[in-house]
Structure formats: structure tokens, C-alpha cells
């Protein structure tokens, strides 16, 4: 696109010409800039346009009709967003600093953000608090890790319907619209599809050992998190009036997953680092995990620590590098990860104790994320 190329080079090139040549060159460069703006608007001109209106033509956005109307004169919505009970609107703008195409993309995103900000409803807090009452410490930790892997979803049906290029101020404006009824209908369909997947997972994970059942059921936590996002969108769009609650069967399945997580048995294999072992057992037990040093277990945790000692300026630096392995009851490795910690003290033994304490904390914090990867 030549838009900014024409605009940016005007001042730099004019300085090299004088008199008539300079005037002629200025005219040519200004013509290039005008042509560049015309080119930017040309894409919109190739599409059928309706006469400029003070308010946008409200049609339900659809993938089959992605036309974006471009105004030649400033529309009213630049200063005052439209008002229509069936729609939600958002306005965004961006300065043309590089190309109009880039500015349009930025303005589009700003319009979508502006629209989404109008839909925020704090309805989910009560639901989340009630859900946590059904969870133990372990399942809460797992659920938090799973939620972190779920990317935020945009509002389905949200689209850019109009733009305005302000040539005088080198600014692009965009108008985003969301048809409420269409969006709610689409959300209902998406949630129904997720519910079918969840019911199938519930049946598939009904039998077997705790770990085997979790392997089949744990991916459902991600589906439940996605479902919660979609349901929150429905609450946002309907101003808290429309919600798609979990069925009793799915509530029971969700609670079964939590119970399986909270009853997982862990065994730590001793490897000579008694301080780390005892500290790790205490830390994990305080977090609500069932940990032992012997007997049957769903997951066996073994570790090996390599040390590096540095003595400098009357200070002892103890550097710990731990390799941790998670195995199932058959000895199959589920996950392996590494954690590092450092302890500093004028006493070498105290420096090592500090490093071990930090290492135990870090291992317990990363255990949940690695268990999710191992079981999932």
C-alpha cells in the first residue's frame, strides 16, 4: 500500500528542490498522497455502497456477508455510538502511522474491546464461590492449572460493520456490532455440543483405577472451563438474564472429578536427601495431598539433587538442581521436570538448608502443573 509512503516522503523530498522545480515537485508529491488515500478508499468503493446515513444499517452480521461499509463523510457514530436494544456497539480508532491497513486492524480491535467492555457483568463470582465449596485443596489447584491453559474466547458474531477514514487527521474509525439474539443462540448451540462431550466422558471414566479414571476424566475440566466462559458470555450479553446451567448429571460428574483428584495417593521415594524429603512431604501435606513414604500409591515421586557449592567473600552459595520424575503404579514415567534453588549464608550448612527449603516450595508449586500434563 502506498498510502503512508506518499505521505511520509513529502517533507523529506521537497527540501531538495527550489523555485518552480520545488513547486512542481510539491504538487507531484501531494498528488501522490491524494492518490494513496484514494487507493485506500478504493477497496471500499469497489463494493456496493448505500448513501451515507446518520446511523448504521442494522443487519445481523454473518460470515456470508462480511461487507464493511466505508463512509466518505464523518458519520454520527464517531462521536455518539448508535443505540438499539437488539444490538451492542463499540467504537475504536487508530492513527495512520504506517499504513491504513494496519490502522484499520488496530481500530477494529479497539472497537471490539470497547464493545466487550460494555458487556462485563460480575455474575460469576457467586457461582465460583459455590463451586469451590465442592472442591478440596488438590482439586482447586488442578482446576486452577487447567483454567490457565484455556485461552479467552471472543464473542461469537461480533463483527466490524462500518469504517470511516478521516484524511484530515490521518485517523481510521471502526464500528463493531453484536446482535444479541443471534449471539445467544450461537452460544446455546456451542454449550450443547460441549455438554454432549462431557456426558460421553462421564460414561467413559466410570470404571477403573483412580489414575485411569482421571486420565479419561481430567480433559473434561478444560471443557468445563470453556463452557463456563461461554456461559459467562451469555450472562454478559443478556445483562445477567440468560444462563445455561449445568445439568444435575454434569454437576455430579464435575464433583466426581474433584473427588478423584482429592483422593490421589502419592508416595515419595527416599534418595538420601532426608531434609528435602521431609520438607517436601510437609509442604505437600499442608496443601492437602495424601503423601506417604511406603505402601501403594497412584503416583510415585522420585527425585535426584545435584549440588554446587561456591565460597566467596565469606559467603557460602549452595546451588541445588533437582530432577523430578512422576511415575504411575506400574512404574511408567508420566512426567519429568527440573527445579533449581539457591541458598546463601555465612554458614555452609545453613545455606544448604535454605536451598532445600526453597526447592521444596518450588517443587510443590510446579507439581500441580506437571501432574495435569502427566495425567491429561
From TrEMBL:
Residue ranges with Basic and acidic residues bias: 17-33
Keyword list, A-Z: Lipoprotein
Lineage top rank: taxon: Bacteria
Region: Disordered, residue numbers: 1-82
Name used for this protein in its record: LPP20 family lipoprotein
Lineage, uppermost ranks: Bacteria, Pseudomonadati, Pseudomonadota, Gammaproteobacteria, Cellvibrionales
